[in-house]
Amino acid sequence: MSIRVQKLFEAIFTLEDMREIYRGSVPKGLDKSEERAFDEKIAELKAIISELEGDTGTARITKIADSIPIRSREEDFINIQPIQAAGRLTPEARKALAAYGDGYSTCDACRKPFRLDKITKPGIAEFHADLASYVNMDVARVVPGARRGFQAVAQSLVAKGDSVIVSALAHYTEFLAVEGAGGVVREVPLNEKNLVTPEATAVKIEDVIRETGKTPALVMMDHVDYQNANVHDISAIAKVAHQYDIPILYNGAYTVGIMPVDGKALGVDFVVGSGHKSMASVAPSGVLAVSSEWAEKVLNTTAMTGDLTKRKFGIKEVQMLGCTLMGGTLLSMMASFPAVKERTLHWDDEVRRSNYFIDRLLSITGSWVVSEYPRKHTLTKVDTTGSFDTVAKTHKRRGFFLSDELSERGIIGEFAGATRTWKLNTYGLSEKQVHYLADVFIEIAEKYELPIAE
């Protein structure tokens, strides 16, 4: 960790210690001992600021709570980790986390009907409406990750033994959601380009009807799959699903919060997004948006009554287990939302920068792209078996040589030790950072005398 980054963390931690003094005081102000403690912390902070200004000093704090290392990968490195790129918190989200990190801080002004999406201070109710509008659906709820969105829909629509159509590239959480509801996944095969087509989806539905005598209960389909980050024709697949009167869930874990998503234009019934993967939010967080046709079924309220107490909780939504995201998790999503909405307007620039880097990587002879090319997304699976893996075969560090070389130049997030097929994500990197990233790969290739095309 660079000394300046170290001092930034120390300053932040010292300020938190100063906050804690106020938290332990009475509202009338600090007593004499508390004032002394506060003054000592001010002096400590001034010393840190002096070191920060001079780019000097040594590490005063190396662990949080004596055991948790300080995480500085986003400050000290360019991080190309596939699932972390679009989940980096905005400055606003980090500030919200500091202010609202306490467990039930969202409940400060909770009043009847005592439900998360009804809270108006802070503007959680308005945020729910904004989320629905953002993906052009009728109703939205925040959930603890995209997987809980899959789960809510599956448990509402899928009965024991029901078939659910998924992609042959479907994420494991889709499988678990279907299994938890008692259903059975039926996978649509890929074509030669590793894409799910509407034609193949129709064939699979027909196969299921012929084999089981029942129409599938649901189609769950990824717009961008997590394995290759290929873009699948969800709109055409949705039309096929509706021809059989099957509702379709749009898995937008790699799209909602990254690129423009219009649920109604796509013709889908449910839109699921990931807050911590694609909406610059604290984990676990996500969004489930629903069309009005299915809102009552998926967002149904409890009808149960206690047999002894006769208690009723009718306003609580069953699949949401009442309330979902509390404290800093939700507020981080809300704080990042303006920036998230703005950045989706510049998706073309993100893809252009991704293609710039991939083009440079492909100039290293023996490198190629497993994903669609030119790229339509910033997440990419590459194959460097014919380039960097040739070095790994004889290097004493084997495949870890590439990780070493990248780390020395301030790049992390690639699969450590992988020099054959691996994934990376350039989302959120500036023009300068992407150019530097590309130059680093070329520099390493030149160091090991790998041939580079013009």
TrEMBL record:
Obligatory cofactor(s): pyridoxal 5'-phosphate
Gene Ontology BP annotations: translation
InterPro entries hit by this protein: PyrdxlP-dep_Trfase, PyrdxlP-dep_Trfase_major, PyrdxlP-dep_Trfase_small, Sep_Cys-tRNA_synth_arc, SepSecS/SepCysS
Residues with the N6-(pyridoxal phosphate)lysine modification: K277
Binding-site residues for pyridoxal 5'-phosphate, renumbered to this chain: A146, R147, N251, S274, G275, H276
Chemical reaction(s) catalysed: O-phospho-L-seryl-tRNA(Cys) + hydrogen sulfide + H(+) = L-cysteinyl-tRNA(Cys) + phosphate
E.C. number: 2.5.1.73
Keyword Protein biosynthesis among UniProt keywords: yes
Record GO terms (molecular function): Sep-tRNA:Cys-tRNA synthase activity
Keyword Transmembrane helix: no
Quaternary structure annotation from Swiss-Prot or TrEMBL: Homodimer. Interacts with SepRS.
Family from the record: Belongs to the SepCysS family.
Function: Converts O-phospho-L-seryl-tRNA(Cys) (Sep-tRNA(Cys)) to L-cysteinyl-tRNA(Cys) (Cys-tRNA(Cys)).
Stated name of the protein: O-phospho-L-seryl-tRNA:Cys-tRNA synthase
Species for this entry: Methanocalculus chunghsingensis
Species classification: Archaea, Methanobacteriati, Methanobacteriota, Stenosarchaea group, Methanomicrobia
